[in-house]
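Project standup — Tuesday

K.O.: blocked on the structure for the chain from last sprint. Re-posting the sequence here as requested.
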Amino acid sequence: MNALSDDGRRTARRAARGAALLAFAAWCLIAIGALVRAHGAGLSCPDWPLCTGKLVPAFDARIALEWGHRVFAGTVSLGLVALAAALVRLPELRARFGVRLALLFGLLGTQVVLGGLTVLLGLAPWTVTAHLCTGNLFMLSLAWLARDLGGAARGETRAPLAPGLARLVWGVAGLVALQVVLGGLVSSHAAGLACASFPTCNGDSLAPTLHGLVGLHVLHRLNAYAVALGCAVLAFRLRNAGPIARLGWTALRLVLVQIAVGAANVLMQLPVEITALHSALAAAIVATVGLAVREALAPARITQESVAREVAPERPALGAAR
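H.V.: unblocked you, prediction finished:
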């Protein structure tokens, strides 16, 4: 891919910082959404897009939390519009990132519709789960865009990871995606205490059944152990693989902390703060493993400047050989 102009590199560098800030804001939005659910405030504004028929409603604690969640989401949306405007003004950046921006706006539009349906359908489990999954994908897409913009500003080129290691990364990513879906289903079906003990389920066994709400909770736990094992293997296999190795170890640490937080969530009977932390950690795991997928697609980075330094010393030798 052709190198960017000086103006393109400057714009890409600034846009990378903006995309990273939006990704962080989207992560915060996921955590705030978890607080809305944990406080039982999901229907404190029973209509949409207004709240109790007003743009700015009369507030109590729950309405303020839900309305604030909506306003924060609107702010993130405006931030994406500003980011897109900065990128599309330059043809070279529009050509390189235009499709990505269209995808982000598609995810944003889907998320807005799902947010409205979540309210209008009275917190139907499928809307709650889809809203959570789409929010995580939107956050990851922003983080991915930030990394790509930064790479474009530095003139980086990339080479693929070995196929076996790439498949391992994709496998772990698949387990993480499944875990987000299962977590959304556990939350939306109020199955967080279907297994009220840990590590066994209701003092019986690790997996007394795979049916009903207990089975849903058990599947969530079992897949968490699979994610932890996958991340452990991934971190070990990628220990000398550069940037992706750091992502592998970070993912493993986050997953181990997440399992401990999940156990505390059960043993402490779903306290609001722990529930929100559980969702925030899950989103952090999604971002970390998702960026590992990006590295797996092309982990090796060689800047144009380093290529020039490597090639330059060879020229005299070539001349001498002639």
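K.O.: great, moving the ticket to review. The radius of gyration is 23 Å. The longest helix spans residues 6-38.
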